[in-house]
Structure formats: C-alpha cells, structure tokens
Amino acid sequence: xxxxxxxxxxxxxxxxxxxxxxxxxxxxxxxxxxxxxxxxxxxxxxxxxxxxxxxxxxxxxxxxxxxxxxxxxxxxxxxxxxxxxxxxxxxxxxxxxxxxxxxxxxxxxxxxxxxxxxxxxx
Length: 122
Known about the structure:
Number of strands: 4
Oligomer: single chain
Strand content: 15-25%
C-alpha cells in the first residue's frame, strides 16, 4: 500500500482518571480534597509525567474535587492551569453522556487528552 502523509490518521490517546480522595460532605458538588487527596493528586501527576508525553488538553467535570485534582495534575505536567476545561455535563453523567462529550469535544489537532471524573462511570 502507498499512503500519503495527508491520508494518515493521527492516533489519539485518551487518559482517564478518577478524582483524588475528597472530604465527605452533604454538598457533593463542592467537596474539596483531603490532605491525602492532595498528596494523591501530586503523586499521580508525577506518575503521568514519567510517561514523557505532553497533554494537549485536560478536561474535568465541573465539580470542585475533579477540578482540584486536574489542577495538581497540570502542575506536575507543566500544563497551563488556565487551559483546564471544565465540562458541566460530565458531573454525574452516564457513560453514554461521557462518550458523547468526548466524541463532540475532542479537538482535531489534539493527540493526548486527560479527563478527570468520578466513580462509578470512570
């Protein structure tokens, strides 16, 4: 087969992570990370960094604990925290909504995307 450079498809890689440990609170949406959760987020960010890849995008649900986790991941990866994208539709979303959001939002030029979300759908 003869393939031209323009016909080659760019491989895309989706990284999915659950938020770090959060406090128990009646207000689920605004839960913050525990001290252990902060350590988990930094440690996991360092582990991702060890793969020597450059994330093009970091997405998070709109919940506070996922945004905080993504923030610490970004810090370890050298990713500009201002570019973290919050997607309200990912909070308490079904697997179907997750897949729809990923399919609709995946930037054509992005190769690596990290999405931080919640159990049980992750």
